[in-house]
Amino acid sequence: MTTAHTNTMHTEVGSLEVTDSSARQIKATIRDVSKVYRGRTQVPALDNVDAHIYDGEFLTIVGPSGCGKSTLLRMINGLQRPSEGAVEISKSSTDRPLTSMVFQDYSVYPWMNVFDNVSLGLARSGLPKPEKHSRVRVWLDRLDLGKFESAYPSELSGGMLQRVAIARALVAEPEILLMDEPFAALDAQLRRRLQEELLEIVGDAGRTVVFVTHSLEEAILLGDRVLVMSARPGRIVDSVDIPFDRPRDPELRKSPEFRDLEERLWLMLKEHATATA
Fold first, then answer.
1. Where would I find the ABC transporter domain in this sequence (predicted)?
2. FRET label pair with 50: which of 26, 31, 97, 118, CA 20 to 30 Å apart?
């Protein structure tokens, strides 16, 4: 009944046990994780989930609505605890946060300007102020926000707000970047644009990323591997390696191989789309 984050130097992160290790190896292990939400009725969200997250991989997770994808991501982030099982994470640095998370709803503070919102990612870093400011500006420029650092969220479009949220997560240089359907609320054109920007910024840099999405196209384009989940209570029904090399051209979407893989994943989801509880 623990959410553990594993390490070789045992430390505690909230309710998570953290450990230290090195090499391209397993970065995180999700071990026999189940989750039941208890209220007037008991709602089983996850059922005996077993999975690995490898160091430096971009892992995407797909599954029917309500299958527990976001619950699983929040467990990796330490925001929720499993009812049974454990999440074990290998911590390799004392200078970087273990995780940073980007949510679907932007999660930016309306009373802070863009610069200050992004700076929150370094609030606990202990870096000297000039270094913090320098790093913030690097990520503002990389996400095309440099001209808007003094703007407030009410002045920005949805796409720009999500860029702010992504910059805030990346400025901290987390060991694992967690993204919970970050483009779901955007229109198709903007979503595509941000997919391509993320592909360039994160997808080719060897960062460890866990990305939840409903879009099979997005999962294939961005990911090194796709975990496919069943309907509630969510289980991992398959792990599919993406056979396309990096750096990845967004035009890959048009290839027959891409479309064949998308169809394969769709048939898999369709087979497991009915809730069992």
1. 28-256
2. 97
Task: Provide the Cα torsion 114, 120, 121, 126; round to 10°.
Answer: 130
- Looking at residue 24, its pLDDT comes to 63
* 59 or 277: which leads in pLDDT: 59
| Cβ-proximal residues to 14 (8 Å cutoff; 6+ apart), any chain | 78
**Dihedral angle sign, alpha carbons of residues 118, 208, 217, 69:** negative
Report how far residue 236's alpha carbon sits from residue 230's, in angstroms, rounded to the nearest whole number.
7
* Residue corresponding to tokens 């796709």: 226
Q: How many CB atoms lie within 10 A of CB 276?
A: 11
The beta-strand segments (E) located in the chain are 11-13, 16-20, 26-38, 42-54, 58-62, 84-91, 99-102, 176-180, 208-212, 225-229, 236-241
Question: For residue 21, is pLDDT > 60?
Answer: no
Q: Look up residue 239 and give its two tokens.
A: 């792990």
Helices within 13-157 (DSSP H only): 69-77, 114-119, 129-142
Q: Please compute, for residue 33, the number of CA atoms within 13 A of its CA located in the half-sphere on the CB side.
A: 31
Query: Would you state the structure tokens that stand for residue 86, as one six-digit string?
Result: 């454990």
118-127 long-range contacts (CB < 8 A, ≥24 apart) are: 118/145, 118/164, 118/167, 118/168, 118/171, 119/171, 120/168, 121/167, 121/168, 121/169, 121/170, 121/171, 121/172, 122/171, 122/172, 124/97, 125/172
